[in-house]
Specification:
Order of helices and strands of chain A: HEHEEHEEHEHEEEEEHEHEEHHHH
CATH class of the largest domain in chain B: Alpha Beta
Strand content of chain A: 15-25%
Strand content of chain B: 15-25%
Helix content of chain A: 25-40%
Radius of gyration of chain B: 17 Å
CATH superfamily of the largest domain in chain B: Glutaconate Coenzyme A-transferase
Number of helices of chain B: 6
Number of domains of chain A: 2
Strand order of the largest sheet of chain B: 2-1-5-10-11-12-13
Structural class of chain B: alpha/beta
Oligomer: heterotetramer
Structural class of chain A: alpha/beta
CATH topology of the largest domain in chain A: Glutaconate Coenzyme A-transferase
Radius of gyration of chain A: 19 Å
Number of domains of chain B: 2
Order of helices and strands of chain B: HEHEEEHEEEEEHEEEEHH
Number of strands of chain B: 13
Largest interface: A-B, 50 and 53 residues
CATH class of the largest domain in chain A: Alpha Beta
Shape of chain B: globular
Largest sheet of chain B: 7 strands, mixed
CATH superfamily of the largest domain in chain A: Glutaconate Coenzyme A-transferase
Shape of chain A: globular
CATH topology of the largest domain in chain B: Glutaconate Coenzyme A-transferase
Chain lengths: ~280, ~250, ~250, ~280
């Protein structure tokens, strides 16, 4: 079945109020082109479920698309705090449902495996537990575990390395994006390159998730920028620093969005605004 | 070269002190945003702990040739014996395969509780919304022992009680796994009975008064307080030329 | 070529009848030791169901060019879109991603219970210790619908009650998923209310008496009992030349 | 740390009474050379935990090494029933603790992940449930699941494609042997080829489990024979049929064991007895 779509058609599959899971993490395999298109299309009231993430969450929050974030770490690691996320929580305009990485990823895995919950160890003694009445302590043979409920995204946004038109997706690097794709009701994918089906069938051990999980797939070369794509291009550290500088104030961030999202209405135009061929070539690994 | 170095910077001292907490043959992990431990692990491996195995979000026992200020970065899988990922790291820890872990936070209190979540009295409307603790609340129960690293030893970072417990330190239901706290001024541990923080050694050139002035509670002071073993000349040379010529360790200070 | 074939063997009829139970676009799985379904799936894909996707222990939607009498065989991953394995297959099913599954057994009774475990009154000291049902007891709850294939329609294989329930058929706590039973003599289904086995169609050249004589209980007989649609000429040609030139399907009969 | 061992040293790590998990399945990646050496060394009272397996279990049972088998399917698929296993159960000399594949593999996964149990769906209505009081039905939000306890092997026997001397093991094909290696206390490995550490470090995405899980690793080319090694050699169908024919009677099987195990005291001698170079070359893929 043909799942090919344009970037714009792919983003249109996101509906107001959707619960999003997002591939990649801080600076790798983040579906940024897709997220910028979601912002252009003015989606609202999104809920986001992530484990550890940075710019993907921050830009959606800064653009006013998000009502609630479930996550364990939202930040830019050594580069700083997430400016829009931080501001929104401090000002009370964003609900942050904070938990721990493995509790969230196990919740997503429970959904991926069709289970109502999964057991994990840990969490005891942390104030996080006071905020999660839905986590149930359970004792088996004297051993205490915590049962964490399934977390069910309505949509997964994924950026991969390559896919065929049937939506068989190959993602390089050390991710667990198979889990979020399997957990979600709809899976919207961008890839660096659409390849012939035969190419996927020559390398089935590299396939991250099968086409029957994919709702739509769009080609978006450098679609993770300013994040990177393992094996192809590095993340754009200078752009990340520019983003963080802009994000220090709401006005500064508004200018960033104008320049890189609203006034660059296509992915190609975004890449031009971000430095064009010269810049993207410089990022090649 | 094997003797103590005479010329070293605070970041080099801290990296070296963290490296010294590790033993040969251990399996060690670090959290996100943890460039100082990332370098400390590689330094330990290059010196006294050649069989030390680092397990992180990207790979097992990698040989990175470069770094950025991020821990989920393909370079951290370079030369690994196996690729890894977030789920595998937590599963290995839960299975008891991780001996030691490095964590940090914005606050750590007298009982070793760590706050990486929010500063201020109202968690819902915090003064500073921090990143969140990633896996701390889980891993602190599943790894063998915990080493806290804190690049800025300051009163407000070492309060009597943290504003929010992301990682529980001394807690009746929690097996004691808090091993060391290494800051830019000193090394500390926890008194077994009370679970209270105790001075272990003072970094070269630092005074007890300086430490007390910069700590928001009364540290337990043992009878003898040695000077932290300074980096060796070999460590400093390795750090500057081979382990971290980029100087990525400085970014965390 | 598109009309009914006039010259076909019992294995070809059975493979064709199983293929006809599948719909285009479905995701289908087969159990271990299931060469007839393996071929039936490929036949359906080559004819009326080009978008049918087979998920098994080796891969997803493979294009095998050869077979052996085993289902955990690298050739079953040849040309797959993704490699798979035992755990993934069960997880996919549990997630509701598998529409149809083929199972077989040494006995199937009036209510669709299947026995793949042991023949005889004493399970502990059975007359015949069979293989065990592999994943049947789990997958029968998690796949969309179940098609039973039974190459030898005989009285002792279709008893009133099985000696041991490996796969439950009609059961108060179990959502009804039993769809079809395809044997070398007939196609059957289950009456919705009673859960009892009911004749659907008789294979060409077989009589109702023959079926009743070879069934250990009274089949429900509807008013009209058509003849099973025979294989088309195209199906027979494809089976012999492209889908199964090895004749692996004969080994299951 | 150097984990290199001879085949004989590796098998000596198995102790009487051990609980074995075994890699591969019917005719792929089965640690047959290791198992033949375990038989030669006369190990006794072994318990075996497998999901679906054939010759590995059957030959150990036929050689008198096994007291109890936990499994979901023991047979030779289209080639027939497992002759020694069948005979032993019918004669009451072997305890068979029968369950279903995913219940067993989830039990092993629970052990691999340091959990006392894992939830799965299914099993209701099957007579298997009458034999497993340790499986606990559990209802979460109206959804019924079954909690299956961890199954903890003391030893995993694994045959892989290649490993370095530190025991980093790469297994080709579609297995889940990572789980049994992680579940067991000791992991004893044979591989087709010992390769330099650099070769493993060039291909870390192919590593099935890390060296810190491996207790010992021995080189045994064609060590899966008469099973196959994906990508290298096919299983030996004629030998399997010879095995099944011999297994029809206890005497016949005793002759088989004499010829291929006791009177072929090394792996090389086994391969010679099984047809030598000509035969193994004919199996190459």
């Amino acid at each position: 079945m043909d799942k090919l779509a344009t970037l714009s058609q792919a983003a249109e599959l996101v509906r107001d109020g959707d619960v999003l899971a997002i591939s990649g993490s801080f600076f790798e395999s983040v579906p940024m082109a897709l997220i910028r298109e979601v912002i252009r299309q003015g989606k609202r009231d999104l809920k986001i479920i992530v484990s550890a993430h940075g710019i993907a969450v921050d830009i959606l929050v800064g653009a006013g698309c998000v009502r609630e974030v479930s996550g364990a770490y939202i930040g830019f690691e050594g580069y700083g705090l997430a400016p829009n996320f931080r501001r929104a929580v401090e000002q009370g305009t964003l609900e942050f449902n904070e938990s721990a990485c493995f509790a969230i990823s196990s919740g997503l895995r429970a959904a991926a495996w069709g289970l109502p919950f999964l057991p994990i160890k840990g969490l005891f003694g942390s104030d996080l537990l006071l905020r999660h009445a839905e986590y149930k302590p359970y004792t088996w043979d004297g051993e205490e575990v915590m049962l964490v409920p399934a977390l069910k995204p309505t949509v997964a946004l994924v950026h991969g390395r390559r896919a065929d038109s049937a939506g068989n997706v190959q993602i390089a690097g050390a991710g667990w994006d198979e889990v979020i794709a399997e957990a979600a009701d709809r899976v919207i994918v961008t890839v660096e390159e659409i390849v012939p089906e035969e190419e996927i069938r020559r390398t089935p051990e590299r396939t991250t998730f099968p086409g029957f999980l994919t709702t739509a797939v769009a080609e978006a070369p450098y679609g993770a920028h300013p994040a990177g794509s393992p094996g192809l291009y590095d993340f754009d550290e200078a752009h990340v620093l520019e983003y963080l500088e802009a994000g220090k104030t709401s006005d500064g961030f508004r200018s960033y969005l104008n320049r890189y999202v609203y006034e660059a209405p296509t992915h190609d135009q975004y890449l031009e605004a971000a430095g064009g061929v010269k810049r993207i070539f410089a990022l090649r690994i | 070269m094997m003797g103590p170095a005479t010329d070293f910077t605070p970041d080099e001292l801290m990296v070296s002190a963290l490296a010294h907490t590790l033993r040969d043959g251990e399996r060690v992990m670090h959290g996100v945003a943890s460039m100082i431990p990332v370098i400390a692990i590689q330094l330990a491996r290059a010196t006294h702990a050649p069989g030390l195995i680092c397990v992180n979000l990207e790979g097992i026992d990698a040989r990175p040739s470069r770094y950025a200020l991020t821990t989920e970065y393909f370079a951290l899988a370079e030369g690994a014996t196996k690729t890894s990922n977030l789920l595998r790291l937590f599963e290995y820890a839960q299975r008891g395969l991780i001996d030691a872990a490095f964590f940090s936070g914005a606050q750590i209190d007298r009982l070793g509780n760590v706050n990486t979540s929010a500063i201020g009295e109202d968690y819902e409307r915090p003064k500073v919304r921090l990143t969140g603790g990633a896996g701390q609340a889980i891993l602190c129960h599943t790894v063998g022992r915990i080493i806290i690293w804190l690049p800025r030893h300051e009163r407000n970072r070492l309060p009597e009680s943290v504003d929010f417990i992301t990682l529980p330190g001394h807690h009746p239901n929690v097996k004691r796994r808090m091993d060391r706290v290494v800051t830019n001024l000193a090394v500390m541990d926890f008194e077994p009975q009370s679970g209270a923080m105790r001075l272990v050694s003072i970094h070269p050139g630092v005074t007890i008064e300086e430490i007390q002035d910069n700590t928001g509670f009364d540290l337990i002071l043992p009878d003898t307080i040695p000077t932290t073993k300074p980096p060796t000349g070999e460590e400093i040379t390795l750090l500057r030329t081979r382990v971290d010529p980029q100087g990525i360790r400085k970014q965390g200070m």
